[in-house]
Amino acid sequence: MLCQRQLLMPFQKFVVRIVVAGLILVVLVKLLLDCYSNFEIIMAILAAIRKDEKIKLHCPGVFGELGGYPVIIDGSNHKLKTYIDEEYFNLNIMRMKNKESIYLDGIENIKEGVLIYTDELIAKVKKAFGVNLVKMVSFDEIDKVADFIVKNIIERNI
Fold first, then answer.
1. pLDDT string in tens for the chain (158-residue length)
2. Cα–Cα distance, 123 to 37 (Å, whole number)
3. Residues 6+ apart with CB under 8 A from 51
4. Whole-prediction pTM value?
5. Strand order in the sheet with 68-74
6. ∠ CA 38-28-103 to the nearest 5 degrees?
7. What are the residues whose beta carbons fall under 8 Å from the beta carbon of 34, sequence distance 6 or more?
8. Cβ atoms within 10 Å of 39's Cβ, excluding its own
9. Rounded to 10 degrees, what is the CA torsion of 131, 132, 136, 140?
C-alpha cells in the first residue's frame, strides 16, 4: 500500500514545475482560475466576433506583459482587434503596479525568459529551510530548479 507521501510526490513535483514555469511564462499558479480565465477569454473572443461588438475583460500576461490587464476584444466592423483598455489607468501605471505586485510574490523581475527572485525571498527560504535558492532561473533550468525545490524543501518537510 502506498503511503500518503508517495501519493503526493508526483503531484507536488508537477505543481512545483508549474509554479516555476508559470512564473517565467507569467502565468502564475492558480491552475483552476487560469483554466477558467482561458475559457473566459476564448468565449469573449467568440462572442465579440459573433455579435460584432466590443467585450472588456481582465487578461493575464496579455501581449507578453507582466501581470493582468483590462483588455478590449473588439469584433466590431467585422474585424478582430485586441488592445489594453486605458480608460481608467494608463499603461505605464498598470505596468508599474504589476511589477510592484510580483515583487511581493518574491519576483524581482522577469527579463528575456529569466526569472529573478528577490533577495528577500532568497533570505526567507534560507532562514526557513536552510536552502540556498538560486537568484536567477532561465527557461531551460525550470525542471532542474523544480527538482531542487521538491528534493530539498518539499520532501524534507513533509
1. 344 444 334 444 444 444 444 443 333 333 344 555 677 877 888 888 889 999 998 887 788 787 889 999 898 988 888 899 999 999 999 999 988 888 888 888 888 878 888 999 899 989 999 999 999 988 788 788 888 887 888 778 77
2. 33
3. 75
4. 0.58
5. 54-60, 68-74, 81-84
6. 140
7. 27, 28, 60
8. 10
9. -60
Contact yes or no for 102/67 (Cβ under 8 A): yes
- The C-alpha cell that represents 103 in the structure block: 515583487
Alpha-carbon dihedral sign for residues 6, 8, 12, 13: positive
Residue carrying the nine cell digits 529551510: 129
